[in-house]
Amino acid sequence: MEINLPPKRDYSHLSVVPEFQDIPEDKHICSCCNAPYEDIGSTEDSDIIEVTVKAHVRRVNRKKYRRTCNCASQPIIVTAPQVSKVLSKSHLGNSVWTYFLLQKFWHGHPLHRIIQNLASHNLEVSAGTIIGGFMRLLGLFIKIYRMIIDRSLLDKHWHADETGWKVFEPLEGKANNRWFLWIFRSNSTAVYVMNPSRSAKVVEGFFEDESKGIISCDRYRAYSCFVSNSNVRFSIAYCWVHVRRDFLAIIKDHSMHSEWGTDWIHEIRELYYLNSLRIAQKEDTIEFKKCHTYLEDAVKTFKQKVDKQLKNKKLADPCRKALESIDRHWHGLITFVKNHEVPMDNNTAERGLRGGAVGRKNYYGSGSVDSAEFTAIMFTIIQTLLIWNINPQQWFNEFFDFVGSDWGKNFEHWLPWNMSSERKSELSLKKSHDPPR
Q1: pTM, entire model
Q2: How crowded is residue 56: how many other Cβ atoms within 10 Å of its Cβ?
Q3: Percent of the chain having pLDDT more than 70?
Q4: Distances, alpha carbon 237 to alpha carbons 181, 277, 295, 332, in Å
């Protein structure tokens, strides 16, 4: 039996630091007659990957020149320009701010752990310095955040979801500190919105009057209320994974109905299988049309089975509730049938909220409203870069060097959809992955 091993990883993009290992003098002589061995100018080479993190002081020496002429209109002494720093009055360089941002908002580390890690490299930074820097950077990144939102509103399909978040700043009229982190994930962007409300007003506030398309979501009423109270610009695609969870709950909590629940799980699995066959075919081909017909027939049979069992007056209450939910949400559960580009579930949004869930657990939320807004902005920028397979570490470092203290520059060419393919390749996180089209 032939075993296909995965290909070896390619590290050719890493820089190489030569290191020569020599033989001690007493070891390259003949042990019999003490005659020396001759250097033949050859080496036996091997590669070892190392990572070295080291804090250092970057001492910038700006050269000065004195005027040698008598032109009074010109300065007597000229000095080389300042180096580029995104926070001009901070003693911390751009790489340090990149480190802070990615450690917290990409890797989910709490502030005290970031400080502790830097202290192990003999660099002590106070929490106040970091938080103060974040609040100063808010004015810069909010511009990029708005550009990403503008791009998102041009798309036609979004995955939406929300999760709880804590904001420890009292708000007038709000009895607790429970906020919500929302995600609106399209093919080209991942927009996060922090809001004290979990109502349909948040969904309505995100989409502008000209936006239209399909929203993939769970069965939370905020999404259905938004669509029903709006016009026909939007339609809902409900998540089949949530439907499947209803039957799993019945199997777990009502063992006498486990066979019944398992049967429905197999029915849902069959729909997933037929849909996967369909999307594996090229659109407008005979194979695609055949698979589409098979799927339509299976969906029709599924609904007939639901209707038939609902007519059974002896159906147990937990089972009836599960089927009534399917019947009530059927119009959104079959959106994927006519729109093959729309997946059957909302897993994309749920995966997008993982970073928020980790952050909520590790650093408990945000200490202020401004901090909460900054959190949503950073999640948005980092996750949008990752959609396009762009390395956030490299992007932030180069972006800070470009911007410096002049925040009035044009940033549009730093957004992934405005980059050339060559530029995206330079910033690529993994060379083997292609960005979305």
Answers
A1: 0.89
A2: 9
A3: 97
A4: 21, 20, 16, 5
